Amino acid sequence: MGFDAMSISRLTRRDWLKQGAAALGMVGIAPSLVRAAIETPPEWEPQSDRKIRIGVVGGGFGLSFHWHEHPNCEVTAVSDLLPQRREMLQNRYGCDKAYDSLEELVHDPDLDAVAVFTPVPDHARHTILCMEHGKHVIAACPACITLEEAAQLKEVKERTGLKYMNAETSYYHPETIAMRQLVRDGVLGEILYSEGEYYHPGIGRTTDSLSWGYGMPNSDDRTWRYGFPPMLYPTHSTAFIVGVTGERLAKVSCIGTTDPDEPALKDNDYDNPFLSGMAMFETDRGHPSRMNVSWHIHAHGERAQWFGTKGALYSPTWTGQPFILSVQGQSNVTERPWFWETLPPDMRYDSGHNGSHPHISHEFVMALVEEREPAIDLYESLAFCVPGIVAHDSALQGGARLDVPCFDVT
Ligand SMILES: NC(=O)c1ccc[n+]([C@@H]2O[C@H](COP(=O)([O-])OP(=O)(O)OC[C@H]3O[C@@H](n4cnc5c(N)ncnc54)[C@H](O)[C@@H]3O)[C@@H](O)[C@H]2O)c1
Question: Whole-structure pTM over 0.90, yes or no?
Fold first, then answer.
């Protein structure tokens, strides 16, 4: 198997007590071990001539992936409800075949897989439809927005045996990849506390262009983002801990904040009164983890900081805090690693969200080529989003501490 970041995380979860404890027992951390832990794994090399035939649905965010640049993939069909977006998808991916809807595309016998980049409330339904038609799925985050949908996704995945991956960008930020390696090697000691955040001022408000007509000017129809509950979109934050240590977020107390003058909080489809959710989780290993999502504080972007007993790592911020890896007794490392060499050559560039899009595209294609589960499989994807569903409930109950159900394989 080539470089697979999740295999590191899975190894950590399974073998944590055995390997992590051994690493923690070391006296001091050598500078070479700190360096080695954030070094780029071996360079990618072609392994197969097989081409995965993918259909891409959703010509907004769905335009920003690298299927056509991967030597083991070709875009066989595209779809969007809007003709302009269908055309944009065809141009972007050099694809002749276009369908008017996902519901038509799923019948195409030439497709191995479908990339679902449709509105959030449709993710579970669209994923299930694709799997019921025998297609593997990669879908935008979050996997779902209700516990019932989480159970349905688990059922269809386990019944069909098809592969599912969530295109969660925070999982492939360079510092998240580095953290998986640092955790694997025990360099930071035990990760006792973590903070993750996703801040995107304006989302869901009546004054935000994304609330109207799929970003098309002069359209008066609401999009799914109008009044969308922040904690139903938790994955950019939660992936920073779940996708690094393999822990599950087991309990939560969440405080929601609101704006009494915001019309979108009075008549949205979700009965949502919040513009922010600030959630305090406890993991299944008893570690506190503070995860925020906000549409209305003066802050921007997705980032995390992780605190271990022997070191800490800080993601850069939009205000200028640099990447810092601080390890007891060692000089700080401030050079951010990018891990480009793990990708096919044509994909080694940053197309958004801290260089995560090529890694996501590559991992899904290689999982299908190698006939293995992708790094962010369905269980991981549900472990990213289910805690937010419960956190939203907690906020509605004034911060009540609630248990988070686990949808892992039993
Ligand atoms: N960092 C990230 O991971 C990130 C960033 C942006 C968006 N996203 C996610 O990507 C997804 C898409 O976001 P967006 O901004 O492009 O949303 P959007 O609402 O602008 O676009 C969704 C598109 O899906 C199309 N669509 C809906 N139903 C369809 C159907 N049945 N058949 C064919 N096409 C259909 C719509 O016409 C629309 O063009 C969302 O889930 C969003 O949360 C993730």
Answer: yes
